[in-house]
Predict the structure.
Amino acid sequence: MSMAKEMLTLQLRPGEATLSSVCRKLNLRSEDVDHEFGVVNIDPQKNLYAILVEPAAAQKASAEPGVAGPFSNPRIETFGPPE
């Protein structure tokens, strides 16, 4: 069973917001990154994006300039039926 992935945030120019560009920029292998999650723009005004990566890759990539994290990525579930 795979360990939970960790979230990193990073500053990117919009043209860099692809998984292949992020992998090159952070020196990550393709298998280190969650392809289903992709590169998500979380603050368009600040060009801030989020990615999910394997824990070992998160530790390595977090040392790069413009990268914050790693942050946990807990599963979000409902507390019960809607009222």
In short: Helices lie at 19-26, 55-61. The chain has one domain: 6-71. Residues 22 and 50 are 10 Å apart (CA to CA).
